[in-house]
Amino acid sequence: MIYKRYAVFIPCYNAAATIGETISSVKAAIAFTGIQIPVFIYDDCSKDNSYELISGMLGKKFHDFNLLRNKENSGERTTTNRAFKQLEKEVDWVFIIHADDIVKKEWLSILINEIEQVNDKSCFTVWSSYDTFSNLSNVQKGDNSGLVTHIIKDKKTISDYIRKISSSWHISGAALNVHLYLALNGFAEDMPQYGDTDFFIRGLLAGYTDLYIARTLTLYRVSANSVTGTSFSTSRDIREIHILIDRFGYLLSSQEVAGIYRLIAGMCGRRMIKAMLRIKFKPAIASSKQFVLATYNYLRFNLGYS
């Protein structure tokens, strides 16, 4: 017996090449559960023919799929926050899958089985491992040990997440408790790259629990056009790391903050060399400036002059 209310949310932007595969995999996962689960696809004013392709694909065979379109391009974080506010009164838990990823048929059934047993007043997310691929002939396997674990919310655990920067919690494929998501004010709309890390840390600091399932229930597509690819090419990820330090640095020691700046310096140094070898002077100069700043901050915090 299913007691909670569920929905699937698919944010979409310029995903004409992949969205059909994503929709088909979600449809198969819903059929595998044996229950009706509505799907909400939000197109963020795609510049390609994503909206038209989806509109043409949906019909009698996809009667639980709903296609919506933003009035203007808003970004994934803003679109997600808006969708959750609209679903608040109708849904308890939302499953998110990105428009370039693929879900396995057991994705929903395994997550729902665990969600039905958690306390909705304290558990803010249930998530799983995933496989990584650029094409289906080259799939990198993720954690498939089958363990089900909670994150222990002590100071060390939280500081470890901050210092790693890139959170192991992965939004695409995760289930989110709608009411606790809104209680946390959703995603930071100025952080398309590390908003996952920011949100997860805020959830832990609020005293909420999470549930991790060590099963690869989705396939994460690696693409140069993905948020991660764009962030690395524009150094947006570096700017967002500085935001994380500003927000959560008070939880870290000077040596731990210095360690993050050392990480930034290494990233900028590698990008600077790579840009110079490709004779791309503008990104090389930008990376060199960030390298100098990160090195300065590393020395400042390492020597205790913060």
Q: Considering DSSP H and I runs of 4 or more, what fraction of the residues is helical?
A: 40-55%
- Supply the CATH superfamily name of the largest domain: Spore Coat Polysaccharide Biosynthesis Protein SpsA, Chain A
CATH topology annotation of the largest domain: Spore Coat Polysaccharide Biosynthesis Protein SpsA, Chain A
The first-level CATH class name of the largest domain: Alpha Beta
- Give me the secondary-structure category: alpha/beta
Shape by Cα distribution: globular
| H-E string | EHEHEHEEHEEEHEHHEHHHH
In round numbers, the mean pLDDT is 91
Question: Approximately what portion of the residues adopt beta-strand conformation?
Answer: 15-25%
Count the E strands. 10
Specify Rg, calculated over alpha carbons: 20 Å
In CATH terms, what is the architecture of the largest domain? Alpha-Beta Complex
How would you name the oligomeric state of the polypeptide chains in this document?
single chain
Q: Tell me the distance between the termini.
A: 56 Å
> With helices defined by DSSP (H or I, 4 residues minimum), what is the helix count?
11
Q: What is the number of domains?
A: 2
Can you describe what's shown?
The protein contains 11 helices and 10 strands. It is α/β, with parallel strands linked by helices and 306 residues long. It has 2 domains: 6-223, Alpha-Beta Complex (Spore Coat Polysaccharide Biosynthesis Protein SpsA, Chain A), CATH 3.90.550; 228-302. Strands 1, 2, 3, 4, 5, 6, 7, 8, 9 and 10 form a 10-stranded mixed beta sheet that branches. Strand 2 (39-43), helix 2 (50-57) and strand 3 form a beta-alpha-beta unit. It is globular, with a radius of gyration of 20 Å. It starts with 5 loop residues before the first strand and ends with a helix.
